[in-house]
Design brief:
Layout lengths: L12 E10 L5 E10 L10 E3 L16 E7 L2 E7 L7 E2 L4 E2 L2 E6 L7 E2 L5 H21 L8 E3 L1
Parallel strand pairs: 4-10
Antiparallel strand pairs: 1-2, 1-8, 2-3, 4-5, 5-8, 6-7, 8-9
């Protein structure tokens, strides 16, 4: 279960949102993430909860708990999803364990995830490289917590 789980009253609409996954194979893949909402996706002020767990490698083995952090990069906000466990495979590209999923956040409602834009795969790689030191620090010891918002 993700840490970002919040109450979506009368959740009845399921649709997908484009995101970027930086995998342990050192690639940035465009993927679709299932998202739950109480109203149709064309409405902007409706809470949308992304269900990223099933898009992560080896989920739910090792650790089913998914962490998230919001980052700001060049005026745009993104949400990064990741896990912490010593048995996750090492990501040689970024020198931490596991993989990350990066989703763009809306401008009007910063709690909502929106579709990735053209060119976001390259930005996601840059964000991942700048976020990697924070994630390595977080993964070193239990009990450490990252800030909910990091400016890169």
């Amino acid at each position: 279960m993700t840490r970002t789980t919040y109450d979506v009253p009368n959740a009845s609409n399921l649709f997908s949102v484009r995101a970027v996954r930086i995998s342990t194979a050192c690639s940035a893949d465009n993927i679709k993430i299932a998202t739950v909402s109480s109203l149709p996706p064309r409405m902007q002020n409706v809470l949308r909860m992304p269900m990223v767990e099933h898009s992560l490698q080896l989920w739910p083995s090792f650790q089913p708990y998914v962490h998230d952090t919001d980052v700001v990069y060049r005026g745009s906000r993104y949400r990064i999803f990741y896990r912490r466990h010593k048995r996750l495979p090492i990501n040689v590209f970024l020198s931490f364990r596991g993989e990350i999923i990066i989703m763009r956040l809306g401008k009007k409602n910063v709690r909502n995830v929106v579709n990735a834009r053209q060119g976001d795969a390259r930005k996601a790689q840059i964000i991942a490289q700048r976020f990697a030191p924070h994630l390595r620090w977080f993964q070193e010891r239990r009990g450490r917590q990252l800030s909910k918002l990091i400016e890169l």
